[in-house]
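Entry 14. Ran structure prediction on the chain below.
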Amino acid sequence: MLSQPVWVLDLASERNVYANAAGLRMWGVASVEALRAREVPAMSAVSRTRLEEVIRRSVSGEATFERWTFYTASEPQTFDILMQAVRLGEGDVGILSIGIPVRSDLSDRRAAEALRYSRDQITFFDSDGRALYRNAAAISTYEADRADLMARFADAAAGDRFLEELRRTGAAQAFVEVTTAAGRRWHGIEAVATLDPETGGTAYVVGEHDVTALKLAEANLRLREQELHQAQTMAQLGSWRLDLSNQTYQLSRTLSAMLKLDPEPIDAAKANELLHPLDRENFSSLLRGIFNGAESAEGSSRVILHDGDVRHLWIRCAPERDASGKLSAIIAVVRDITEDVRARQRIDFLAVHDGLTELRNRAGFSDALDQAMARTGQAGGSLFMIDIDGFKEINDTRGHAVGDTVLVEIGQRLRNAVEPEGIAARLGGDEFALILPYRTDRRELDAFARRLVADLCAPVMVDDVPVLLAASVGISLWPHDASDVGNLQRNADLAHYTVKAEGGGFAFFDRSMRDAADKRRWVIDNLPRAMKSGAIEMHYQPLIRLSDGVRVGFEALVRWRDPVRGLIPPDRFIPIIEECGLMATFGSHILWQVAAQIQRWVAVGREPGKVAVNLGAGQLLGGDLVGDLRAILAETGLDPARLELEVTETVTVGRRTAEIVSTLETLREMGIAVVLDDFGTGHASLTHLRRLPIDRIKIDRSFVANLGVVNADTAVVRAMLDIARTMDLSVVAEGVETEEQLARLIAIECPLAQGYLFGRPLPPEAPDFWRLDDGVAVGAGV
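Output, C-alpha cells:
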C-alpha cells in the first residue's frame, strides 16, 4: 500500500530478502527473487558502525529514525529511514526499513558531492543573481544567456518576487515557468543564502528540478506532494489492522505506545470509545468508504487517552482482500499530528492575540471593534484607549524583564475589569484598549473609569519591590462620537492625548478636541506651502527711546495670511510648530526674511535701527542656529549689529541650560545682541540671570498693565530697573497702551518701551509705516 520503499535486510546473510514495489524500484531490481540474489553493496566502516547501533537499539525494543544515502541506481538516493529489528524464520534477525525520500538538502555538507552529480540543476549565484557555478544538469538545461537567475524567469515579475523573498528572508521556494534550452518548462526552485568563500559576501545556492509533467497532472501532483509532506514531517508512524471476522483491531507496537495502550488486540467497540465523540462519525465514514469499494480513504480524528490527553491522528485506510478477492480486513497507516494541530492553533491564536499578555493584538482588536459596532447598532458602546505613563522609564531603569512582568499584570487587570462582556487588547508597547459593548451611560462610565485608573495605578510588586505606575485613558462612545471604527478610535486617541498632556487620569472625547486636532493638522499640512508662497509675513512694531521719543528699532512679529482664515496671529500656530519639531526650519525662514528686509531698508536710505526677532526653543535646542545665522549674514551681507535675538526665561531654564548659554555666547561673539523676553514671568533666579549672556531685558506686559494700579507691580518694575542698571543691561517695557503707563515709566526712568500707544505691528508696505521717523511727543500722546 505504501508509496514509500519498504525492505528487509537479513543480518545473517547480509542480503535483502523482501521489498515492496517501491523498494524494488529503489534497489533497481524487478522482483523479490532478483533482490535476494543480489548482494548488498559493501558498507563503509562508518555505515557498518551505524547499522550495529541500529541493531543494538532494536534488541532493546527501540525503533531508529535516521537519514541514509544509497548508491543503488544511476544517482545517489537519500531517505529518512524508520528501522526496527524483526524476527525472521528459523530464529534469524532482520532489519525492517521504511524509507521516506528526501530531496537534496542544499545546506547539508554531507550531500555536497551528491549534489554535484545530481540530475537536479544546482547553481551558485552571487548577491546580484549572477551565476558563479553550475553543475552539469544546470549547464545542459540553460543556455549561456539564461545562466543568470533573473534571465531564466519567463515572467519577470515572478522573478522579482522570488529574488526579493530570497534577499529578505535568506530562503525562497517557488514553482515557476522558466525559459530553458528545451523551451518553456515548469521548475520547482529552492534557494538558500550562504557565504561566498571568495568575497565573504552573501551568495545563494539554487536547486531546480523539472516538474512540467507533474504540472500537467496537477491533481496527481497535489496528492503526491501531500503524501511527501506527511512522510517528511512524520515523527511517529503507526498502523492498525481491523480484522472483519472478529471485529478486533491489532495495533502496531508504535501505535500502542502512541496511545499508551498494551500491544494486544482491542475490540472494535472499545476502540470506538477512545475516539472523541464529535469525531466518531468521521471515522465511521472512512471505514464505510472502504466497505463501499474505495481503494483508500483518509482523514483525521481525535483520540482521548486514559489520562485525559487528547491526540490528533491522521489515518489512511486501505482494503485487504483474501485469495478470493473478498474484503477480509481494513489496514491503516497512522501518524500523530497533535503537535502540528497545536502549532496551527497557536499560530491562529497569535494572529489575533498578543504573545505576551494573550490579550487581543492590534489586528484582533480592529476585528473585534468592527464586529461590536455592527452587532450593537444604535445601542452603541464605548472604547477606552489606555497608555501606561512613564513605562519607558521602567524598561530603562529596571530592565525589560521587569517591564514584561508589568505588562502581563496590566493585561490581567484589564481582563478582570471587562470580561466577560467586554474585550481587552494590547495594541503595542504600553498601549492598551478596552471595548465595552452596550455601555454608553456617562455616569456609569465615569465611575468605571475612576475605578479603572485607580486599579491601573496600583503598584506592581516585582521581586518584593513595588513598581509605581500611572495611566492616561481616553474614552469615546459609539454612535454618539463616531459611527465608524477609524473615527471612533481617533476620537478616543484625542481624549487620551489630551489627558496625558495634563498629567494622566481619564477624559471623555468632546468636539473641542477634534477642532484642536483639525487646527493642528491644518497647520502641519499647510505650513510648507505657506512658507514657499510668501503667506508667512513679518510685521514690525517700533521700539521707542523714552528720553526723547525717538524710534531706535523694531520687533519683528510673524503673521500667517490665509485667503480663507485671514491674518492669523502667532499664538495660533507657533505652539503647534514647536510641538511638531518644525521650529528650526520655520525660525530659519523668518530670520532670512528679516535680514533681507533690513537690507532693503538700508538700500533705500531708511534707518531701521536694531531689529529684534523672537527665537523658539526648537531653534536653540533642535537645529543649527549658529550655522543658519552665519549663512544668512554671509548671503545677505547684513551687519550683525543690526540684529537682536529674543529668548524667553522658560527656554533658558532646564537641563540644557549650559548648552543654551554656550549658543548665546557664540551669537554675541558674532556681534548679535541677545534679549531676555517676558522677564519676571519665568523661573530665572538672579544667579541664573547673571550667567546668561544677554544685553537687554524686556519687562513683561503684565507688570506694565498694573503700573499705578497695583503697588506691588510698580515696586517689582522699579526693582527690575535697579537690577538691570547694576548689571549694565538695557531695559524695554512691553505692552504700553495708555498715557498713564507711559508717564509712570518715564517717572521711574525706564529707558525703552514698545506697545500700541506708539504703534501696532505693521507690514513694511503699510502707508504710515514710517510715521514715527520724526519722533514721538512723549507725554503728550502719539
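The longest strand covers residues 183-195. Will compare against last week's run tomorrow.
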